[in-house]
Write a structure and sequence with these properties.
Layout lengths: L30 E12 L2 H9 L7 H14 L1 H4 L8 E11 L3 E12 L7 H7 L6
Antiparallel strand pairs: 1-3, 2-3
Helix pairs in contact: 2-4
């Protein structure tokens, strides 16, 4: 087994043998934390036009993506290895059509806890991107 090249003190997610471990955050104070993430998805102009018009065979694409983004933010600790569960107080997901043919996605989360990770909203929101229409 190859040992990590970085000193152990700088990688808190590695134990003395270089194995992944969950960090003990029990001594850290609980603070309010916020995270913002952004993503963009490119698509055919005709697809974007259908989405904007609400005229797709898949239904409300933007509404579904917004809900998926919120759900993903709530599940961040299940999606990111070694992330501690975080109580989410607020998640806001914005999806805006842009030119050339793309959707811009921004999500903002607010929680109180000891872990600094935490906004899986864009990944989740774009995980339900439109199939070919």
């Amino acid at each position: 087994m190859t040992q990590p090249q970085t000193p152990q003190s700088s990688l808190s997610h590695l134990d003395q043998q270089g194995q992944a471990q969950m960090v003990d955050v029990s001594a850290k104070p609980s603070t309010v934390r916020e995270a913002t993430a952004q993503a963009a998805i490119k698509m055919a102009a005709t697809t974007l036009a259908q989405i904007e018009a609400g005229n797709t065979p898949k239904g409300d694409v933007l509404g579904t993506a917004r809900i998926a983004g919120i759900m993903a933010a709530k599940q961040t600790s299940n999606l990111i290895p070694l992330c501690h569960p975080l109580p989410i107080q607020k998640v806001e997901v914005l999806i805006n059509p842009a030119r050339p043919a793309r959707l811009l996605h921004s999500s903002h989360g607010k929680n109180q806890g000891r872990d600094r990770r935490g906004n899986g909203g864009p990944d989740g929101g774009f995980g339900c991107r439109p199939d070919p229409l």
